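User: What would this chain look like folded?
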Amino acid sequence: MRGPRLLPLCVLLGVLYVGLLPNLHAQEVLAIGKRDIIFLIDGTMGATVLISVREFIRRFVDIMPIGPDDVQVGVAMFTNTPQLEMYLNTYGSKESLLGALGNIRPKSGQVINIGTALDFVRTNMLRADKGSRLQQGVPQLLLLMTSKKSTDSVEEPANALRRMGVLTLAAGSRHADEQELKNISFAESVVFRLNDFRILPRNPGAIIDALTTLSGVAATEAPTEPPPVVDIVFLVDGSNYIGSNFPYVRDFIINVVNQSDVGPDKVQIGLLQFAEHPRIEFYLNSNSKRQDVVDKLNQLRLTGGSTLNTGAAMNYALANMFQPSTGSRRRQGVQQVLILVIAGPTSDQVKSVADKLALAGVLTFTVSSGQADPALLRTVAFVPELAYHNETFSNLPAFAEEILPKLTRIVIDI
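Assistant: Here's the prediction, encoded as structure tokens.
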């Protein structure tokens, strides 16, 4: 079993199941130690199911000693992107916390990216300025609640949480993937399978037992390498070849963005789309926050058309996007990256323009599907290994996991 191997990472002090919950009444409050608890909720479950999940959390809060020196609760929801509902320190009293829970609403969308959501919790919520008492040795617990399998990879995000000492629990309804839940949780004993989340308020005992009795000392781990500082420009096929498959393309881009530390001194993101002609959507220095970039991506609409002048668009990107006036930090030695996302055959010459980009210090990746020519795109990418192709559009979002590590391993002398 994975549990015994993983428990030392969290330096667990023990698990005590005291069997109190069956006799609890709503007004009784458990006498438990300090703990920070985050609920990470699949927002695609629908209104009826979400009401049940919300009621479960409300009943849990009702029996907790809530406060900055007792139990703190945070909530985030996710679809293809994560969304904060409340930090651990947003509400310091039980009354205000219970009131805020009533504002949680389902989100639109069918695709979920659990890996991205786990990373969001780790980088945005488990911080001292957001209420986390990780550095004080207070147990950090995360309960994932999901109705389906993730589109992106969960392995490394889950491992990163374990290395921090976070005790991750996973609850899934019948369409969730059991092995994925096991990979996410810190031990198989805290994987909970339900036929339907609507039954949870009637029988919450096992999950609440775990949330209130698990105890551990956080074993923090310093990062092995600093996060990359890079300028990334997406050049996106906006033609009819993408068409109705655009949500998969957008999910791929959002996955890259959500797993990047976006900021003017960190990772910058720019985007232009093209068909017969290129069109700039936003420059490298247009958005200083990750959420701003995600919001722009969610508003993006394709230009349409059936002609792809890819070479001309690449040349246009070099002349207009990789410039100091539009945010490029090439002169400061920051790596410049172009990610070409394409689904149709190109109508003009691209190889000489790809060489021109390489000579200018731009590292080119290609991500393709549909009727794109994978052999040609291997010559467009800086090296053939940076060309990614899959015949199925729905597999594109997973490419983010493969591309990101290579941003720091392959460097052009600029």
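The chain has a mean pLDDT of 85. If you want, I can go into more detail on any region.
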